[in-house]
């Protein structure tokens, strides 16, 4: 006889135009192994999809009552997350991502880590694995500390407090204490929420027991667009709180600024640009080798220099564009107002 459930975990997930992934996501989350005495509801906020995702979600929701369709006319992640939270009934609320594969015990480990640590938000490491030569190179760079500045979120073995965490899992009352996601932010809404949580005295915990694999972009164009957007929204978070989440987020913007200054003085002297580009070339070569070695494939070396440059130039240029708009008190540019994939 199946024991009755006494507690509920609410899974929340925003999506838009994910027809190629939505069935796999639903199958994966519905197959989660929950602790005894726990039930589950899965709220999926569709951002007015026009590729068949909405219709497919309707069908899935009719077949399984645990799946709940949530309308997200705002079409961005933050509005979708807040719409799900407003309807969630669970004691625990956890965010999942359509493009991520989750271990069968992912939700159980989130619950256990919340109870064991007493933290306000918990999650696992952000592990990326791409497909195809370029996708694999992007995944390798994503995991390399030389590329991402030693972020603990990329360390699968780390256990302890962190500044921010991938996706997140909260007790329901966390949103009453720290507020909902900022709907003025198209990107970085999770980092901003975690910063707000920490500034209010909350604690964030990362555990290697919470396992998942993220599928990154698989082309340089899409990677650059993603990082460009991440960088653009960073100054809007800084304007709100008066500080960066971490100093490593400044490095790409500082590099772009240094490069522009070197180019400006080129008519008089070329040695600053020569030195800077030489140093960056050495850095990219070493970072590419480190990423290829960690990924166990030296074939990725052909793609990694361009991938690393796309990470840095995309984020750095985006940061300066965002800063320009913030300093001139302009509203966010329309081209950055929707999610890119």
Key phrases:
alpha/beta; 10 strands; 341 residues; 12 helices; 5-stranded mixed beta sheet
Strand-helix topology:
Blueprint: E1 7-15, H1 22-30, E2 38-46, H2 53-63, E3 67-71, H3 77-87, E4 92-95, E5 100-102, H4 106-117, E6 121-123, H5 132-143, H6 145-148, E7 160-161, E8 169-171, H7 174-178, H8 189-199, E9 204-206, E10 212-214, H9 220-241, H10 251-264, H11 271-295, H12 304-327
Helix pairs in contact: 5-11, 9-12, 10-11, 10-12, 11-12
Overall description:
This protein has 341 residues and is α/β, with parallel strands linked by helices. The chain has twelve helices and ten strands. The protein has helices at 22-30, 53-63, 77-87, 106-117, 132-143, 145-148, 174-178, 189-199, 220-241, 251-264, 271-295, 304-327; strands spanning 7-15, 38-46, 67-71, 92-95, 100-102, 121-123, 160-161, 169-171, 204-206, 212-214. The strands form three sheets. The chain has a five-stranded mixed β-sheet with strand order 3-2-1-4-8, with helices on both faces. A three-stranded mixed β-sheet has the order 6-9-7. The radius of gyration is 21 Å and the shape is globular. The model has no long low-confidence stretch (mean pLDDT 88).
